[in-house]
Prior knowledge:
31% of the residues lie in helices and 19% in strands. It is built from five helices and eight strands; from the N terminus they run ββββαββαβαβαα. Helix 3 links the parallel strand 7 (102-107) and strand 8.
Amino acid sequence: MPLIETGKLVDDAWVHLGDDDALPAADVPVIVSLARFHKDRDTLVGRNGGLGIWLASSQHPKDIADHLADFALVALDFPKFRDGRGFTIARELREHLGYRGVIRATGHTLPDQYLALVRCGVSQVEIPEGRDPALWAHALTEISTAYQVSVAGPLSMARLSRHKKTEHAA
């Protein structure tokens, strides 16, 4: 699948491993499920290529809180475009657990959600096959103001409103 980061297509060196797939060479970065991580933790941690974890939308980020330093990437599942749990998980990883690595959205997402994903802390989005990457890049610039507070990006409408009230009161 095409991969977009900061509005630009980027190469994807990561390999998604199934729970029973053989490990590739140690310099190949892999993304594994939470179950596979728990089963093969000793073998997976410390790989030269990097280790990523895939979280289903039903899994809580606290399930990996003690191991966040082991992961260069956390991939979040978006099973349906209207399922907002991935947004919450990304925000929790950034704000409450202090994760600074790559957060990747996978699954069913829409270009209209791209800016909101970035504002919640998502670094990369796997674009569904057959979708136009230009629509995704445009989505970052189409709307410049938001109502919600962001972990990154411009101020929200609420903060701008408070700032203006403070200016007028002075």
